[in-house]
């Protein structure tokens, strides 16, 4: 329980910093909707960890599988998807055939993520946990797809893709370590779990300055 509390408290602290930072940068200063959606995603990450910390402190154990915390984490990925798909994708991919190789290559990310999530899915024969993993697969796969796509796609809009590549790289790395957290948590790999949680915490607040730097370079 001690390690679980430390890991979740660390991510809660980092997500809270990122959320407050993001609100000050993109809501008070009326930033673009793209950035505001990302801040909403960070808020969901914060809620996820707040629930887990409270649960650990009151119940003495980690809440595994389908619950409110997992829905909050799924909501975080939905906000990240909304930013990339709803706000940017139509600007960087007009549906032309020349982007077919990029679309196919970008499928590498969700295929790898699906393979990673299959590890705890088949290793833990608990329905509640499997339902939670299915929900995560539904949201993480498209998030990883659009993140990789917007990293590798040809930049046709005067630096729009290039300016967001660092952000999308961070999101892709974050997605992988969220998955690794699930794997190590369910397989009782304590030290690897702590490492995965630590890296997640480092990434979350840095999403804000990286996004801000990116959107400040937009020329369209």
Structural category is: mainly alpha
* Helical content band: over 70%
State the shape: globular
Biggest sheet architecture: none
Uncertain regions spanning at least 5 consecutive residues:
none
Tally of contiguous helical segments:
8
Helix/strand order: HHHHHHHH
Oligomeric description of these chains: single chain
What is Rg? Answer: 17 Å
Q: Termini distance? A: 50 Å
Average pLDDT, rounded to a whole number, is 89
Task: Work out the strand percent.
Answer: under 5%
Number of strands: 0
Provide the fold topology:
Blueprint: H1 2-27, H2 33-59, H3 68-92, H4 100-106, H5 108-123, H6 127-152, H7 160-186, H8 190-215
Task: Give short descriptive properties of this protein.
8 helices; 220 residues; single chain; 82% helix; mainly alpha
Q: Could you describe the 3D structure shown?
A:
- With 220 residues, the chain is mainly α.
- The protein is built from eight helices and no strands.
- The chain is globular, with a radius of gyration of 17 Å.
Short description:
The chain is mainly α. The chain is built from 8 helices and no strands.
